[in-house]
Amino acid sequence: MASLQDNYGRQFYYLRLSITDMCNFYCGYCLPDGYQKKERDFLSMDEIRRLVMAFVELGVQKIRLTGGEPTIRKDFCAIAKTLSQISGVKKLALTTNGYHLYKNILEYKDAGIDNITVSIDSLIPEKFHNITQHNCLEDILAGINSAQQLNFNAVKINAVLLNHINTDEIDSFVEFTRNQNISMRFIELMQTGSNIDYFRQHHISSDCVREKLHSQGWQIVEREIDAGPAVEYQHPDYLGKIGIIAPYGKGFCATCNRLRVTAKGELCLCLFDSVGYSLRHLLQSDQQQSELIEFIISKLPYKHETHYLLQGNPGMNHNFAAIGG
Ligand code: SAM
Ligand code: SF4
Hints:
Layout: E1 14-18, H1 45-57, E2 62-66, H2 76-84, E3 91-96, H3 101-110, E4 115-119, H4 125-132, H5 137-149, E5 154-161, H6 170-176, E6 183-188, H7 196-202, H8 207-216, E7 219-220, E8 231-234, E9 241-245, E10 258-261, E11 266-268, E12 277-278, H9 289-299, H10 320-323
Parallel strand pairs: 1-2, 1-10, 2-3, 3-4, 4-5, 5-6, 6-9
Antiparallel strand pairs: 7-8, 8-9, 10-11, 11-12
Helix pairs in contact: 1-2, 1-9, 3-5
This protein binds S-adenosylmethionine (SAM) and iron/sulfur cluster (SF4).
């Protein structure tokens, strides 16, 4: 079987697939004015199926559906069901803002999703409202609770570290994992083409979390081959785990095992690249699979060893809703 390996010996087992740019939230660092564009020619279910079959043929085992907000697509569960039935898809994950979680959690489970990550940047309802412009923290927490009862393989929470906004809640987020089998991820705020002022005001290094965890006796967990970008920690007194995603940290790119495809079918070798390679012309019939596979393999040598974030260059990434954060 062909495999996906780049010039630096990195193997790619994990595809993050955006299925829509659209979102119903207004997170200050991502889409402060909400989704604006009108064109909605996102990949169809058949295009998505062909795409995933090609990546699986190349050794990808884990697919994450993301966006924008993936669950606002009317055919979201149908897409998930189709992908979960492709042999070779070992894990089907979802990243969601959780807006539809409580209502639809059973349908997600039936569609074959086994790993759910929900973004919550504050556990205080008023603050949550200020960040997202939505007043639904309680419902989202109820959705997470239901996900735990339904025995998903993994339930995770993403919180972007926002200086002067939620850094006073780090202890509460950590406490959240004490009696719950949940993985709490702290993500460093990343600069995009559209959040430069916000980034300057609110970026803070994740060292503040790392130092806290070390001083409290948390230990690093060994990585799986299709693990995400987080360095994970565990502690004997806590049922859950804590992860830190620090893209500005040393060595972040060395363990990169993931590729991305945008909602319009562009292959992105890195979240912060300045080019994407359209795959769409090769997604139009089942007969194009070998051509599609060849094309994907041919682009791997263009993957850079690292991003240029430290040089202040976020690439073509206007916001993460467009590329699937
Ligand atoms: N709408 C879904 C959600 O919010 O979970 C999925 C898409 S969202 C782009 C995926 C993740 O990227 C979320 O956890 C979000 O908080 C994170 N994100 C978005 N913009 C970011 C930024 N500039 N820096 C760090 N994380 C960001
Ligand atoms: Fe929407 Fe997710 Fe971006 Fe928030 S982070 S605006 S929920 S895409």
